[in-house]
Structure formats: structure tokens, C-alpha cells
Amino acid sequence: MATRLASVPVAETYKVHARLDGVTRIYPPRAGHGEVHALGPLSLDLRAGEFLSVVGPSGCGKSTLLDVLAGLAVPSAGTVEFEGKRVLGEVPDGVGVVFQEDASFPWLSVEDNVAFGLRRAGMDAAETRRRVDFAVGFMGLKDFRRAYPSQLSGGMRQRVCIARTLVLQPRLILLDEPFGALDQQTRLLMGDELLRLWRETGATVLLITHALDEANLLSDRIGVMAARPGRFIDIVGTGWPRDRDSRLAERPDFGAVTARLWSYLRGESLKALQGSSPPLGGEAR
Amino acid sequence: MISKATIIRTVVLVGAVAALEVACRTGAIQPALVIAPSAMVKALAETLQSDDFGGHVQQTLSAVAIAMTLAIVGGFAIGFVLHWIPFLRRAFNPFLAAYYAIPHFAFYPLLIVIFGLGPAPLIVLATLFAMVAMIVATMAGLDRVPRVLLKTARIHRLSLMQEIWRIRLPAAAPHILSGLKLAVAYSFIGVIAGEFILSTSGIGHEIAYAYDNFDNPRMYALILFVLGIVTTFNMLVWTWERRLARRRGMAS
Amino acid sequence: MTLSLRSLRSLRDPILVAIGLVTLWQVLHQIAGDSAVTAPAPTLAHLWEMVGQARFLPHLRETGLAFLQALAISCIGGVLVGVVLGGHRLTGEVAEPILVGLYSVPKITLYPVILLLFGLGMPAKVAFGALHGIIPVVLFTMNAVRNVNRTYLRAGRAMRLTPAQTAWHILVPATLPEIFSGLRIGFSLTLLGTMLGELFASQRGLGFLLMTAIDLHDVKTILAIAVLISAFAVLANAALLAIDRRLHRGATPEAEKT
Q1: Contact yes or no for C199 and B178 at CB 8 A
Q2: Are residues A179 and A284 in the same domain?
Q3: What is the pLDDT of residue C10?
Q4: Could you tell me which chains touch chain A, where touching means 3 or more CB pairs under 8 A?
Q5: Helix, coil or strand: residue B138
Q6: Measuring CA to CA, which of A25, A139, A180, B77 is 20 to 30 A from A5?
Q7: Crossing angle of the two packed helices B53-84 and B169-197, in degrees rounded to 10
Q8: CA A83 to CA A15: how far, in whole Å?
Q9: Looking at chain A from residue 106 to 165, which residues have their Cβ under 8 Å from any Cβ of chain B?
Q10: In this structure, is residue A99 part of a structural domain?
């Protein structure tokens, strides 16, 4: 392939790509309720080049975990490291994030959206063009280069956001329920594309999701979180081959993994349902 | 493509004008009340050529232009500052909420006493009237910038200035534009209403003067002129807004 | 206990603003002097004295009556027209741009026409006030009716409601919050229109008193009347806004968003 997406396969450089050590996150008291212990203490070694998913009942702090790892939120205690360096309230170079909410810029065309980060970083025009061409092609957006996000479906808009992250050649890609708003069929296809992207970039991927099948299908390992305060009950290894796609669901042992995840989560989900504590870190409109 | 509603609307408006024409020509409506539309147009053509007309138009339009500029620039700046300083905003919020409930023209006499009878009180009045719409719209726009876009700004490690210029302002633009639209309309209303009640010149005053002197042709000609020019101007702003919206693919 | 604390807190902001405005007024007075801005205390004393005088009452009644009649026309007429325009899509689409255009035009230019049609006096003031107030009521009602969630109507049909039951139990509660927002704005604009009408070619009413005071350069009276009208407008608006917020049950009324 003429253009590589990642400059160096991360697995060759690092063994532990990112590390959470004893991380907690406590929200200060607000009107209506006291302080909320949202997360941890929680530790996790993210291996270089792996695809790790995090599942858990709603409101268990999955998104808080991602925010802390990305440097978008500061942990109340504990440390976060990325490529051996502390993450301190700022997003480190080499980390890309895709959100559940539509984060495409409605005032920019698809190609300007994708080029956004490169232009801010002062990349020269020729290289910008080359990378945008590649990412737009890779994400199947060729025919929509000049379209504006409002002219696209939700799935296509999410592709724009992924392409916008991709051009920056992230070594760690964090995805916060990126397909949460999409229908099941679209989700499956987007999952296949995500796997292709992961294989071809060699990047480390952390995916937050609430869909057990999706986590099972995509991941090398799946972290199962307990209801608030969120921490890992177990980390389940799937053992799927690296070269996989959504047809994995046809395998007889596929259902066993999902069933195991559910056996962990049924009780936790019931707790979350009855506790009916409002999810934190969500969108305020 | 022209929608069915547009065709019907045009037919209704043309029909109404034609009906008025017929009613006036046949004497069903006395010329002392309303003159025929054709007579209005004829009177307008004559008025446009009269010597003093240009001066009045110039005075009115320059007052509107100044008020509009002050209201838009000042309103944007104030809205921006109030958005960033929660303390100031809490202090001003009740005031802003009640602002358009006050019949501000009650204070117009006071402005005359303070600023005299020149164009200054008119401009102040129109600016005060138009500015608050711009302030409220600017704040509303900045308030509603989706949180996920601000997170995206942090992921791209934008500086504060970049974040404002590249994310917040474009995201707030639709609200700010609708504030601008109101500011334009309100500037016209403020100036012309002020001229009408308490001024010795300007188009608003000329209408009142023609009414006092039973000069119906000139009065209707001037009314037609004002409605025409204001509607044209408002439509230009609307078209511009819609063009911008459509470029974003958000045309409603 | 908590309730009274909360209501105290909700009163704090308006009180602070009132104190701020009176302070600003005093400062303006210090800068501009008695010939331009009279001081707050004497002006309010003057207002109190004026309201007590027998010759003031007919003017107050004239303005009040004109306003109430115009308000009745704005509200009743506006809601009726709005329901029709909202219920019949095509009629609504035909009328909306005309209404919006009329809304953003200086309506004062049409006042001479109204004076010619209705003659000097009460009817012209009422008509002019109603002309200002009715448009927002129509527009808000139209949008409220248009935007009724179709699922509510389907739910009503699934529960086999009669048309009357659907209207009373679904359409009215679904549209009321937005319609009320329109009525609140209509209230303010009707007051504005009525006052504007009195400022020009009028022989009675608060507006007439204002114009007379200008001729006499009676700043104290100008300010006193302006304060009286503003206080009425602000208090009435606050009461309506409180109801508006309750109807929207915490959601921001559409009217406040723009």
C-alpha cells in the first residue's frame, strides 16, 4: 500500500502502551446530591496493538474512564501514563478520540472536516491533501467530499469523525460508543471497518460500548465493569484471530463469550437499574 | 421550483391589491380614507422626485445604519462578555428577560430632553432597542455550542483563541445570525417610530406631517416607500441567512 | 423551610437589579442634573402624588381600557387564527411569510391609516395595540398546533378517544405551553402598541400626559410616568413568565431561546 496510516507499528516499540494505575474519579457535590464516586480505584495495562473493549451497565463510569485516559478529565487519585509519560489534563500527541455524539463540524465540508486537525497542526498542503485523500477513500467518503455533514446520514457522519481522527495517524484510538446511535446492520458493517482500520494502522484501540455482541466480535480482550463506582470485575480474553470480521458470529463458541459477559453483567445491570443514579459525564444538552 | 404556497400567496396579495384598486376606483372607499394603489404608486413617483425627499431619506437611512452597526457590534461584544463572566450574567439576566416587556418609547421623551432634537436621541433609542436582541442571541448561540465539539477542540489541542474562532463562533453562528436579523429589523423600527412621534425631519416625520396636513397621496406614497424599503432590506438579510444555512445544508 | 429559602433566593436577583437601576438613575441624575434627569426620590414622590389626584384617574382608565380591549382581541383573535393556520398546513404556509414580514416592519407607519379608518380616539388605539399584539400570538399558536407530536395523536387513537376527548386531553395540554409563551409576548407588544398610539394625535391617556409633559419640559412627570408603565410591564411580565416556566415544567420556553 502506498500510504501507511501509522508511521510505526506501536507493538514493536512498546509493550504496555497506556497504563491506568489506581485511578479514581470523584465528582464534587452539586445541587441535589452529594459527591459522586464515579470510578475506581481501577488499574489497567493497555497492551500495544491490542483491541480492548470496555462493557458495563449504564452509568458505571465507562465514559469517565475514557475521558481520564484521553486526558480530557483529571483523575482524583492515581496516575495515567501513555507511552511511558504521565497524562496530565491535556490530550497527548498520538491519541485520537471518537465520540458517540455527532462531533462533525456542520460548517465545514467533509474534506475540510477531515483536514481540520492537519491544518491546525500546520501540515503543508501537499501532505494534507495526500492524507485526506487516503482517509476519505479508506472510510468510503469519496463521493461526499464536498458534502456538508447535515446532508449525510448518522453513519456517514461518524465515518467523517473517524476519518478526521485517522489523518492524524494516532497510535492510540479511543472510541466512546461511536456506533451507539446507529442501527444494528450499520453497526455491524462499521465494526468490520473498524477492524480493518485497526489491522492496517497497527494502532492500539480502546472501545467503550454497551453492546455485548459488538465487544465480543471486535476485541482481543473485554473489560467488564461493575456498577458505580466503576471498576473491573474481570477482563475476558477472546482469543479470536487478528484477521476477523462480523462473520465471527457464526462460530459456535461466539455465543459462549457473550453469555459469559452477560452472566457478569446481569446482576450489575439490575443494580444500576434499581439505583437509577443519573449517568455522569453525559451531555448537558 | 416555486412552491404551491408561494403561488397562492402571490395570487392572494395581488388579488388584495386589485380589490383595493377596484373599491377605491368605484368609490366604495373614499379617497379621504384610502387612495387607490395605482394612485399611491403615482404619488410615490412624484415624491421620489421632490427636492427635500433625498435629504429625509438620507437622514433616516444613516440613522438606521449607525444604530444597526452599534447594536450588532455592541450587542455581540456584550453578549460575548456576559457569556464568559457568569457573575455579570446572573446580575443582568432578570434585566434582559424583562427588557422587551418595557414599552421603551415611554423613555423616548427623556432621551429628547437629554440629547436634544437632533438625530442623536433617535440613534440611541434604536440602538438600545436593537442591541438587546443581539445580546440575547449571542449568548444563546454560545450557550448551545455542543459539549462534544469543545471536547474535540481539546483533542486537537487548540488554543483558547483557536477554540473561539474555529469552534465556538461557527457553532454559534446560526443563533448570532438570527440575532443580527432582529437587530436590523429593530433598528428600522426604532428610528422610524422615533421620527414619527418626535422629530422635525426624516421619513417617519414626513408621514406624520402629511397626515396632519390631510395630504393623503404623499402620506400613502411615503408609507409605501418605507414598507417597501424595510421589507426589501429584511428580505435581503433573510436571503443571505438562508444562503449561509443552505451552504451548511441546513435550509429549512 | 427549603421552599421559603428558595423563594427568597429567587427574589434576590430582581431586588439586586432594582437597587442597581435606582443607583444608576441617581448617578445619571448627578451627572446630568435636574433639567435632564430628576432624582429618584422626588420623582417617585411626584408619582405617588400624581396617582392620588382625581384628574389623573381618567387618563389611567383610558389607557387601561384601551390596553385591555386590545389585549382581548390579540389573545382571542390570535389563538383562533393561529389554530386555523396551524391546523391547515397550506393556509399556514401561505400566511406565515406575510405575518413575519408584517412583524418586522415599523408598524407606526400604518398608524395614520388606522387613524383614518377608525377616527381619533379609543377605537384607533385599540386597533393599533391589537395590531402589535396579535401577530406573535398567531405565530406561536400556529407553531404549537403544527408541532404537536403525532405520536400523541396516534396514542389517542389507540385508546379510542372521541374527537372531543382528543382535543381536550391531548391537543390542549400539548399546545398550551407554547401558546402561553405567545400570549406573554403578545401582552408586552400590545402594551407597546397602545402606548405608541397614545403618543401620537391623542387627547387622553398616559401617552397624552407624556406628550404634554414634553411640551412643558416637565422631566419629573415624564420620568414618573415612564417608571409607572415600566413597573407595570415588568411585574406583569414576571408573573406571566413564572406561569410560562411552570407550564414548560423546567424546559426553557421557546420564546426565551431567541
Answers
A1: no
A2: yes
A3: 65
A4: B
A5: helix
A6: A180
A7: 140
A8: 9
A9: 106-108, 116-117, 120, 147-151
A10: no
Residue A74: give its domain's CATH number: 3.40.50.300
| Residue in C14, C20, C108 closest to B196 by CB | C108
Which CATH number is B35-247's, of 1.10.3720.10, 2.40.37.10, 3.30.413.10, 3.40.50.720? 1.10.3720.10
- pLDDT, tens digit (0-9, with 9 covering 90-100), for B90-128: 778 777 877 887 877 777 777 877 787 778 889 999 999
What does the domain layout of chain B look like in residue ranges? 1-34, 35-247
CATH 1.10.3720.10 fits C60-257, yes or no: yes
| Domain final residue, candidates A139, A168, A197 | A168
Backbone φ, ψ for residue B103 (5° rounding): -75, 90
The predicted model scores a pTM of 0.82
Whether the CB-CB separation of B152 and B174 falls below 8 Å is answered with no
Mean pLDDT of A272-284: 53
Domain boundary among A168, A199, A214: A168
Q: Quick one: cell of C121?
A: 380616539
ipTM above 0.85, yes or no: no
Rounded to an integer, what distance in angstroms lies between the CA atom of residue B138 and that of residue C231? 27
Tens-digit pLDDT profile for residues C187-202: 999 998 998 888 887 8
Burial C74-92 (b: 16+ CB within 10 A, else e): bbeebbebbbbbbeeeebb
Tell me phi and psi for residue A80, to 5 degrees: -120, 130
Tell whether A154 and A270 lie within a shared domain: no
Predicted local confidence at residue B94, as pLDDT: 74
Contact indicator for B131, A67 with CB cutoff of 8 Å: no
Q: What is the pLDDT of residue C190?
A: 94
Q: In the numeric block, which cell numbers belong to residue A179?
A: 456506533
